[in-house]
Fold each of these.
Amino acid sequence: MEFKVNIEYSEKKTSDCIVIGVFESLGFSPSTEKVNTISRGYLKDLSQNADFQGKAEQALLLHHVPHVASERVLLIGCGKKEELDEHRYKKLIKKMVNTLKETGAKNVFCYLTELKVKKKDIDWKIRSAIEIIQDALYCFDHYKSTKTLHVLNQITFIITPTQTKAAQTAIQEGIALTVGINEAKNLANTPPNICNPTYLNVSARKWAKKFKNVRVSMVNEDEMKNLGMNAYLAVGQGSKNDSLMSIMEYKSDKIPASTKPIVLVGKGMTFDSGGISIKPSQNMDEMKYDMCGAATVFGVMNVVAELNLPLYVIGVLAGAENMPGRNAYRPGDILTTLSGQTVEVLNTDAEGRLVLCDALTYVERFDPELVIDIATLTGACVVALGHHMSGLMSNHAPLAEDLLHASEQSGDLVWRLPLDEEYQEQLDSNFADMANIGGRTAGAITAGCFLSRFTHQYHWAHLDIAGTAWRTGKEKGATGRPVALLSHFLLKKALA
Ligand code: BES
Ligand code: MN
Ligand code: ZN
């Protein structure tokens, strides 16, 4: 898919379809007004017979509108002018692309970017449009015999002359972002018999071949044993797929050599059966998505390298598979983590924190500026926040603030949860320094508390994406979240 910008309406430039907005009670946007004039009032006439009132998300596809050069005109109802906010705008773009999908239009002029959206600039309008269009056109048909083919392959957004520079940047960033999101989705949607910890590593290596200033290394089971990453190893020991931690490094040549890295650690449970504390079988297939933290890191590393951001970013894919079996770890096991702290396993299904705690200790060696882990960590987070917001926990208020800001900017939302001392007691164990579960209440928070015990050496934030990383049901599939959130966070860092 190709995205371009062009200045204002011109009837000479033809496309397969032009998309214009109409407000309720037929307020025309500037371009719609022009189309109406060119067509000698065709649009006004049309509205008279009540086929189209401009209600929000109404769509009407017209062919061969008199005197209009483009073959099709797609009218999109925008609702009341004064109500056009970001949510409405996104719905309009979605309506547009879903309507276009069903037509034979290859190249399209989209005039919806000229609409005034509350508190949003052209930059946002273009980036959001690109994200929504790519999301609507995404499909994972790698394993289907018949592939989906979209003919739509070029969209030109209409802007005013003064918007040119901002629009071009928005296009560039929007494309890089959606490439990253799609990479994350593809990796996440890949089935668990293919996508194992080694596959994550192979993906990282392919990435390294594609970009400059990048490097990939790994920590295998032998090295983990030598280092003492026993919690990480325990989780994977029931699986015939070896645990493997992949480290993706991107360091711009435009920054001082002494720059400290921003470290991203992604939970990469390529399948979480629960282990001996096995999960119920309903929807267990979705536990292939338990590597969405790693997929996010992979996606973000693609964005960063694609945009050549003046940053030093290290992405860790903490790959493992949680399976039952004769070699599997058990409830009751006591594990000595890389940090030296011991953990009593009370539930083998609380495995993410065991892998992450060792990965989080491991990254101390990079002397990071800050560390963010991303994990489909708890069902409790889904209960707390649903599928709209990811859980955010942090030991550093300014970092939490920055992430909340990026959340607003990107629309990839997070909500902060507390990590107060009181919750820590829930992790008390009679036999070890801590238990790996914290009881029935506040499950997302006690998981965060567990991780916080391994992050004293640096500024740290934890994103629990259990509710946001994939969609269930008829539209089952990875969402690519929170690639947008973290990309915005890093873009802002790059400007600082
Ligand atoms: N990967 C799951 C969390 C999860 C569950 C994400 C459902 C999305 C949907 C995690 O490893 C897990 O099993 N967590 C347990 C923790 C519990 C045993 C304390 C959970 O949430 O039930
Ligand atoms: Mn689990
Ligand atoms: Zn899990």
Note: The longest strand covers residues 262-272.
Amino acid sequence: MNIKNYINGKFVNPIQNQWIDNYNPSVGEVYGQIPNSTQEDVEKAYQSAKEAFPAWSNTTLAERSKILSNIARLIEQKLAILAEAEAKDNGKPLSLAKAIDIPRASSNFQFFADAITQFSSEAHESVGLGAMNFTLRQPIGVVGCISPWNLPLYLFTWKIAPAIAAGNCVVAKPSEVTPMTAYLLGEICNEAGLPKGVLNIVHGLGTTTGQAIVEHPNIKAISFTGGTKTGAHIARVAAPMFKKLSLELGGKNPNIIFADCNYEDMLATTVRSSFANQGQICLCGSRIFVEQSIYEKFKKDFVQKVSELKIGNPFEVDTNIGALVSKQHLEKVKSYIDIVEQEGGKILQGGNKVEVKGSEKGYYLQPTVIEVKSNQCKLNQEEIFGPVVTIMPFTSEEEVLAMANDVTYGLSSTLWTNNLQRTMRMSKNLHTGIVWVNTWLLRDLRTPFGGQKASGVGREGGFEALRFFTEPKNVCIKYE
Ligand code: NAD
């Protein structure tokens, strides 16, 4: 199965004819090839986007909205094919791809199809000076969208939908680790009537294809989701060119559990917030802090529930935990489990690779619970991004707040309590872009999404995304 680049509405081979193997992580085997696109391919994609821009940026909002809705509808119609492709490419349970990834990709297009018809800008009357100002919000031109492997189509479309809704043309690159559903999106866009060149998808490695997008002098904005190190590198490359940047990066999110919470709800949600998608969600609560008075009970109940999770081939209906995305990533996650003792921790559950019957070469790892003594250990300070969580007790609100914030990241936090005053105090003082109280990953697409500190710069979601993908221009008219 050879994947091709999608440029100017057509599927084309990479100019230099360089290819990368594409793996099915659930069986550990190569099942296809993808282009490793070079600067020449990115230039071709850029030229196609540039040619499409004048017409697309002048297309009525109603027409843009209709085309985005068509894409949303087609994704929904092809849910079964897309979910299978995602599960095979990524290793995630098919049930998860069907319930979350693909429906959300469709919602991303439908949401921005609607949002663009409601987007407005400001007017400021300069009273006493006889002038009126209004803000023109114009599309930027050609923009770059670069996404990671953990939620492949979900995050890819979360960038592309607002970019094209706002009238931009796009050069996009999905992760080289999970390119399949991005490839299928090209066909969907053609079928939906998206004019050629509005979206161009180039495949390849970050260091070749991604770098060429970021370095391109006329790609004026970069929306990036991925690791913090890569984000820092992109910022260094893009800053001297004064590109607009949106960086959604890593996380090391606290899950803070007070004794007054709704226990059963907390327990079930904590299993999910720890291990959904094999723990490979930037928002997973990987540092669990539990109030001392319920610590022993929680420890016992949590470990019991985690031990019941079924690790298996993503295509089996009762699989809870599928394969990790790659051999390299499995080894990285395992390397943290290997230093547990050295870091003063103790494995309470899991910790081992798993041979799944019939898929022995797949990249499976037991969901792992580690008890730690200090928030200062590597297991609590570094992003592991796999099915691994730590737990430790706390005695006071002040203590847990200090530990929650004592990390370089600041993406999200989860708080379990029924105390209103505490909820308000903690929400104000947690240094994260999102605070979930008595829930996790409940998403309203109108809300600002993004992180503080090493978790990124800028916000996606709702009008924030439409603001990012437009340039505000103040027009001042003197009338007296
Ligand atoms: P990554 O940084 O390795 O890669 C992300 C994307 O960037 C890929 O498409 C990759 O090819 C590309 N890339 C790599 N080097 C590049 C370069 N020099 N120039 C341009 N592009 C380059 O991240 P990953 O391993 O794919 O994803 C996991 C990371 O993503 C985790 O840290 C996770 O927390 C983070 N993430 C964050 C969010 C969020 O919303 N904050 C969401 C999902 C994942």
Note: The longest strand covers residues 131-139.
